[in-house]
Write a structure and sequence with these properties.
The complex is a heterodimer of chains A (237) and B (470). With 237 residues, chain A is an alpha/beta fold. Chain A has helices at 10-22, 33-42, 59-68, 84-92, 105-123, 165-177, 184-191, 200-214; strands spanning 2-6, 26-30, 47-51, 75-79, 97-100, 126-129, 132-135, 140-148, 154-161, 182-183, 219-224, 228-233. In chain A, 41% of the residues lie in helices and 27% in strands. A 5-stranded parallel β-sheet of chain A has the order 2-1-3-4-5, with helices on both faces. In chain A, strands 6-7-8-9 form a 4-stranded antiparallel β-sheet. Chain A is globular. Chain B has a 5-stranded antiparallel β-sheet, with helices on one face. Among the domains of chain B are: 15-166, Beta-Lactamase (2-Layer Sandwich), CATH 3.30.450; 313-466, 2-Layer Sandwich (Heat Shock Protein 90). The chains are: A alpha/beta (237), B alpha+beta (470). The interface between A and B is medium-sized, with 15 and 20 residues.
């Protein structure tokens, strides 16, 4: 994943760059909005992290300029002020998310993952969560299996996962929401297309069936009391 | 005080009093003058009538032509005219003019063009410092058509021109000006305590907030002085708490910063190109940094909640069910890490409040609950409507309950204080979470209730809020 980092504070920038590089991103760091506009002319980025407080042209103006130039990559805004006005303005100018400085690195990584997933979901028909893949065009679910061969090399293979039509609906909804929890009422609404008289208990039936199918592959469906369910990876950070 | 600051104020009391008093005074003077004029006018009319009665008598005194029509006519004064001429202290005169206006007889200064008509004409004329009332009329006499003129300057009231000026307008003007000075002086004197108060307030240093002396102030100013003193006391308390807060905040920030600095300095000490750190040291550093960041954030939140209580921005309807769901999502990972069952018991409710402050309050309560509840515990966010008695309005409530170690009742008041941490509390907190929640409760005109949770275990923090009907 190629990431553009626009941040003028060297200490903050080097910290973020190190953290993101360790997480597997290819980070291009520039210190001003003008440089950012230059590099985006020649190179394509999957995601951008932009600080609001930049010299001369600020981060909000840069975001607007990028959008005006037709760049569609997700943009995450960093701000030192947590004034509501900034957030609203940022989202209005075409930013996809914002974070208040100082922040914790795992949180930034989680937000970036969510942004990337959303932008990919918009362009491709395949939803992914860990080893689970849902091809919404073909309506096929599959699990990526990594098997350790006798020679020590890992081979990746796909194993189809059988899902009933209602299980599919529940699974698709959960994956669209992840890593956020899915509201049980909304799940129920998504299911009423299939069955007019569906009860909350029925949802639980599908959930427990899905659990049985997913848990062997390290994916848990955690119940959130009073709210719904959340897809989680077992043993993953 | 900034002297450049131009403030538009209403006219001063002194000026207002002056203007208000002067208006009626001048009106009275004008009325007085007008009445005097009226009086002079009626006097003039009376005199005019008297003069007019003398006109035919004067005409009768002309007995015939002189030798030519240009010579003085044959003239024999009738007694009334003679009496008029000799009486009135000599301030009378008469003249007989030819139709062309040539003086035939009498006082030369009375020579004038004859009137155009046969009607009598009245006029006033000054001669040798005396104002005469003059009647002129063309009359047919024994010597043909002549013009007769009679002038009377004897009556004081005839002097109305000058009289009006000197005796009517002048006294009134003097009176008015006298009143200006008197009113000015009186107003100045009466307002002296107010001016003194103004100077006492103006001359103060911004840090001097001791009460003003209320004893010497007049009755009307007394409430103002008392109000000012009340305000001073309020500001004083606020400034004092701010000062304490800043000092506390600086002290609190110094602790984690000192730790950070000590660590980093120690690592930077060896004279070498590379420094090796073990993971445990680094994580300690990370935790100290996070704690410092969180403290800065909380201090900011607290100061903003503080500011909100003095700035009145209208409250908005807030969907606290959606708020509970949002905050729940934020804490799912932290709860999962401790295998805490974090859940909701919510129903639709909208309350009147500030969304971001209520969110801040909820975040602090849930953070406390998740932080201090043991592994495998249970934390519940609640909201809904409640009605304590049948005749009471329905109110909304927001609640966070945990089954953690709880807080002994005697500590539940102190734990709201800023930077106070209940003795024996594990982990690293700033002692600000509940202070912030408490402050936000106050901003919403409510109070945070802290009780033990179900079956006397854990802690239950409840905030009642004004429900909004739709």
């Amino acid at each position: 994943m190629r990431l553009l980092l626009v941040e003028d504070d060297v200490l903050v920038a080097s910290g973020i760059k190190l953290g993101l590089s360790n997480a597997g991103y290819a980070v291009d760091w520039v210190g001003s909005a003008e440089r950012a506009l230059e590099v985006t002319q020649s190179d394509a980025f999957d995601v951008a992290v932009i600080d609001i407080g930049l010299p001369s042209m600020n981060g909000l103006e840069l975001t607007q300029a990028l959008r005006d130039l037709g760049h569609t990559m997700p943009v995450l805004i960093l701000t030192a002020r947590d004034a509501l006005q900034d957030r609203v303005q940022g989202l209005d100018k075409g930013a996809d998310d914002y974070m208040i400085k100082p922040f914790e690195l795992p949180e930034l990584l989680a937000r970036l993952r969510a942004l990337l997933r959303r932008s990919q979901a918009a362009t491709s028909a395949v939803l992914r969560f860990g080893p689970l893949e849902l091809d919404t065009a073909l309506r096929q679910a599959s699990i990526q299996l990594q098997t350790l061969g006798s020679d020590g090399a890992t081979t990746v293979s796909k194993q189809p996962l059988e899902l009933g039509p209602r299980e599919w609906t529940v699974m698709e909804y959960l994956m669209l929401q992840a890593p956020k929890p899915a509201n049980k009422d909304k799940l129920l609404q998504a299911l009423t297309g299939w069955d007019k008289e569906i009860t909350p208990n029925a949802v639980e039936v599908y959930i427990s069936r899905l659990r049985a199918k997913l848990e062997p592959h390290g994916i848990a469906l955690r119940s959130i009391r009073g709210f719904g369910y959340r897809l989680e990876r077992v043993g993953a950070a | 005080m900034n002297q450049d600051q131009q403030v538009t104020v209403g006219p001063g009391l002194q000026r207002r009093l002056l203007l208000l008093l002067l208006g009626p005074l001048l009106l009275l003077a004008a009325l007085n003058t007008w009445f005097d004029f009226q009086l002079a006018d009626t006097a003039a009319i009376q005199q005019d009538r008297q003069l007019l009665t003398l006109v035919p008598q004067l005409a009768d005194s002309v007995l015939g032509h002189g030798s030519t029509p240009q010579d003085p006519p044959n003239f024999q004064m009738v007694p009334q005219v003679a009496g008029f001429l000799s009486g009135q202290a000599g301030r009378t005169a008469l003249a007989v003019l030819s139709p062309e206006g040539k003086l035939l007889l009498g006082a030369p200064w009375l020579q004038d063009y004859p009137p155009n008509t046969y009607e009598p004409e009245f006029s006033s004329q000054e001669f040798q410092g005396v104002v005469y009332r003059i009647v002129s009329q063309r009359v047919i006499t024994a010597a043909g058509e002549l013009t007769v003129r009679l002038a009377d300057g004897s009556d004081g009231r005839f002097q109305w021109n000058r009289r009006v000026l000197l005796k009517v307008v002048l006294p009134n003007l003097v009176l008015a000006f006298g009143a200006v000075f008197a009113v000015n002086w009186a107003v100045r004197r009466a307002l002296r305590p107010l001016v003194a108060l103004k100077e006492a307030v103006e001359g103060r240093s911004p840090r001097d907030l001791t009460p003003l002396d209320a004893a010497g102030s007049p009755e009307e100013v007394h409430p103002l002085v008392l109000s000012l003193n009340r305000l001073f006391a309020l500001v004083n308390a606020q400034v004092e708490s701010q000062r304490r807060f800043v000092a506390d905040a600086a002290h609190q920030l110094r602790t984690p910063l000192a730790g950070l600095q000590a660590q980093v300095e120690a690592w930077a000490m060896p004279e070498g190109q590379s420094i090796t750190l073990d993971a445990a040291q680094l994580r300690k550093l990370r935790d100290a940094t996070r704690r410092t960041s969180q403290l800065a954030h909380q201090l900011l939140a607290l100061s903003r909640a503080d500011a909100r209580s003095t700035v009145s921005e209208p409250r908005q309807p807030v969907d606290i069910k959606a708020l509970c769901e949002e905050v729940l999502e934020d804490f799912l990972d932290a709860a999962a890490a401790k295998q805490i069952d974090l859940g909701l018991e919510v129903s639709e409710v909208k309350v009147s409040g500030y969304a971001w402050l209520l969110r801040e309050l909820l975040v602090n309560l849930v953070d406390n609950a998740v932080r201090y509840t043991q592994v495998g515990g249970r934390v519940t966010l609640r909201c809904g409507q409640s009605q304590r008695s049948a005749n009471e309005a329905v109110s909304g409530f927001l609640e966070v309950e945990d089954d953690g170690p709880g807080v002994p009742p005697q500590e539940r008041v102190r734990m709201r204080e800023r930077f106070y941490r209940v003795p024996g509390t594990p982990g690293e907190g700033n002692g600000l979470g509940l202070a912030i929640a408490d402050e936000i409760a106050l901003v919403h005109g409510s109070q945070l209730q802290i009780k033990a949770g179900a079956q006397g275990r854990g802690l239950r923090c409840t905030l009642r809020l004004e429900a909004v009907r739709e």
